[in-house]
Request: fold
Amino acid sequence: MNSTSTMLPDSVETKNRIELEDLSIFYGDFMAVEGVNLQVRPQSVMSFIGPSGCGKSTVLRSIDRMHEVTPGAHIRGRVLLDGEDIYAPNVDPVLVRRMIGMVFQRPNPFPTMSIYENVVAGMKLERSGRSKKSHFDEVVERSLRGANLWEEVKDRLNRPGAGLSGGQQQRLCIARAIAVQPEVLLMDEPCSALDPISTLAIEDLIHELKNQYTIIIVTHNMQQAARVSDETAFFNLSGVGQPGQLIEVGPTTEIFSNPKNQQTEDYISGRFG
Reply:
């Protein structure tokens, strides 16, 4: 993969596959996460769970190089998308973030933009505004339908995106992320600021989206992890100031019913965290 690469996979088997190889993440001299080895199956949902401060969101942000916006942040090891190292010297981080979309904890539609403009914002940046409006119209409808929002907003596309409810705003942000047709969607506690009804809508949407995308979600909600994910990765840290580590990963049903590691069992059962 390089700045001119289309990043198209060689086969269906490799498409949308994320692999972390001995990944350690640093902020300056401080090691925040140590030695993570992990594979995320294509077209599946993986949940990252664990106590606060164990590195879940740090690992998530490293997968699309978002952590690099923090001065001094760097990694050791490799993050592979479809078998290609996204940290290779000739790789453009902007291209990485196009192929690996991010949905944040709190809905963040661009406040000065309409619903329509929010959806196509990434495409305008990518194409320097040269696409025809008819193409944008198609993308807006496709993306809003994909985010289960079209029927609710199709008659007010020119109204501010920030005027939607919290749950609608989060689905708008998901529509914005999928408008550029990424391979992977990262979600950092996407329901933590939402009411139960909106949370259910997002969870239903995740089930639908995994048919097309590989999804990784960070959540503190054990019930949510059990509901939405095919596999679960449990992170922990041995003490304050120590790096986070991946303790156990496996099918969600096994992690929640018969974990192999005592730390995992203690966390799942509520003994800490």
User: Anything to note?
Assistant: The longest strand covers residues 30-40. The chain has one domain: 15-268. The beta strands are 18-27, 30-40, 45-49, 73-81, 84-85, 100-103, 184-188, 214-218, 231-237, 244-251.
